[in-house]
Amino acid sequence: MNKTANQMLIIFGASGDLTARKLIPAIYNLYKGNHLPENFVVLGASRSAMTDGEFRRKVVQESAYLKDVISTEDADFVSKFSDKIFYEDLGSDYDTDYDLLGKRIGDLNSKYHTSNQYIFYLSTPPSLYEAIAKNLHNQGLTNETEGWKRIIVEKPFGYSLKTAKDLNTGLQKYFKEKQIYRIDHYLGKETVQNLLVTRFANSIFEPLWNRNYIHHIEITNAETVGVEKRGGYYDKSGALRDMFQSHLLQIVSLIVMEPPINSSAEEIRNEKVKALKSLRIMTDEKTLFDHTIKGQYVASEIDGEKVKGYREEEGVDPNSKTETFAAIKFFVDNWRWKDIPFYVRTAKRMPTKVTEVVIHFKTPHHQVFKEQDINNKDNKLIIRIQPDEGILLKFGVKVPGQGFQVERANLDFYYSSLSDSNIMQAYERLLLDAMQGDATLYARADEVEAAWAFVDPILNYWENGKDVNTYGYSAGVWGPTNSDDLIEGDYTWRNPGPHLVDDSGFCVIC
Ligand SMILES: NC(=O)C1=CN([C@@H]2O[C@H](COP(=O)(O)OP(=O)(O)OC[C@H]3O[C@@H](n4cnc5c(N)ncnc54)[C@H](OP(=O)(O)O)[C@@H]3O)[C@@H](O)[C@H]2O)C=CC1
Ligand SMILES: O=C1O[C@H](COP(=O)(O)O)[C@@H](O)[C@H](O)[C@H]1O
């Protein structure tokens, strides 16, 4: 394991939700797991007026996200952790001079020996990224003559291809690309990283991982929750920008990519960029009409409880056409994947929370056993990203008795069965990587732009095209009924339950 050097983490937008809900709990767990260096401090910065003590109380002692954890800890231990946290009020906006902030960073650096090594974490609206970068630069805080400097930026990284390019250009005026870490918390999930290992550390899958053996690929990302308190943000974003452009295209790139020559950040990211660039961009309205479906949840009852429709949510325009369901069919124009359809859907207010990838293999080219029905014909490899993380291979076995009746059996692996199943949460893993200077699990500028290049025409069509429908679906079902029509042939979406293997699943033949 790499050693983590002395450093300071400076969080902008520190008064916000992400800092309290994800960042400070992640840092706490890293501290507890002994992953932080001896000389390490966190400095929160935002416009809200707070003292160090008030900020510590907000994000540690009184934090709803740490309360349960710290209640079981020794008070001294918690207090030692709190002592590493500081706060600086930025004044009325993020684009004034940073003299006071610069001085505070300098003072903390001298007192706590953080070796002029700084990570700036931008947990603010993206419209502030360039101004923050410029002001840091003006303070000499981007200069690496003494100690490295890194900047982590949160999603959404852009609103379109153009805005993503503008953001890249804006940041690159003040930071070199190697200093910029674009976070995508799905890349911090063990099971997403395991896509690389499953493919490239085994010789049994890769020979089959192509158009000769794979019939189609299906990815489902479903959440039971609605937009919760983020209606204002979500209504301007929608499922395609919120989940598909970032997290799901990251997963797609790991499935599509060619083997990298080694596991370095640059080699892996080079292959991911090539993969994203090979997605066939849909330009004509007919293809966009046939291959994309958008939907929106309407009021319904789930388990006897009334659930609001999307348009009734706080912060949402009552006439909104923003999608809470998106399903896209697309092709990949390269040697490996020619003509193999990919189906990806993401949605809120689904029956269960699940993210999984299903690789559907082709049926044997000659049918020896005629009794096999369509659902039992194809071998499937199901890679469960969350929850009940694991992998399931479905294959045909003979039903005992006369004749050759074929049924499906399961070969399964669960992460929970590993002896060291203490899986680091995504933000912990990603923060630790950035602290150690490993950008493998962060998106590079060209990667983000390639993803936007694919998504932009769909968004343009959905926003301005002819005959675009936003189909309603009741909260608690698997989206608009016509979303099954997207899938070619006799196939439908696999609508999974909360567990990798469903109720009938643990028997050998099922
Ligand atoms: N919360 C989450 O689960 C996730 C968040 N993100 C991203 O992380 C970033 C931060 O998110 P989150 O903490 O939820 O956001 P919040 O709105 O809760 O916090 C952002 C902070 O930024 C400061 N701020 C400055 N200008 C503005 C402005 N115009 N509008 C709102 N806040 C402003 C505010 O602090 P002050 O007024 O004190 O300066 C605020 O506390 C965003 O880019 C978001 O998209 C990404 C994934 C998940
Ligand atoms: O980035 C986001 O992700 C969450 C889903 O994350 P998960 O780790 O719980 O799968 C989603 O709810 C949110 O809308 C989106 O902004």
UniProtKB/TrEMBL annotation:
The UniProt record lists the keyword RNA-binding: no
E.C. numbers: 1.1.1.49
Record-annotated Glucose-6-phosphate dehydrogenase NAD-binding domain positions: 10-194
Alphabetized GO MF terms: glucose-6-phosphate dehydrogenase activity; NADP binding
Gene3D superfamilies the record matches: Dihydrodipicolinate Reductase, domain 2 (3.30.360.10), NAD(P)-binding Rossmann-like Domain (3.40.50.720)
Glucose-6-phosphate dehydrogenase C-terminal domain boundaries: 196-493
PROSITE patterns cross-referenced by the UniProt entry: G6P_DEHYDROGENASE
Active site: H247 (proton acceptor)
Cellular component, GO annotation: cytosol
One Gene Ontology biological process: glucose metabolic process
Functional note: Catalyzes the oxidation of glucose 6-phosphate to 6-phosphogluconolactone.
Family from the record: Belongs to the glucose-6-phosphate dehydrogenase family.
Record's protein name: Glucose-6-phosphate 1-dehydrogenase
Organism: Cellulophaga tyrosinoxydans
Gene name as annotated: zwf
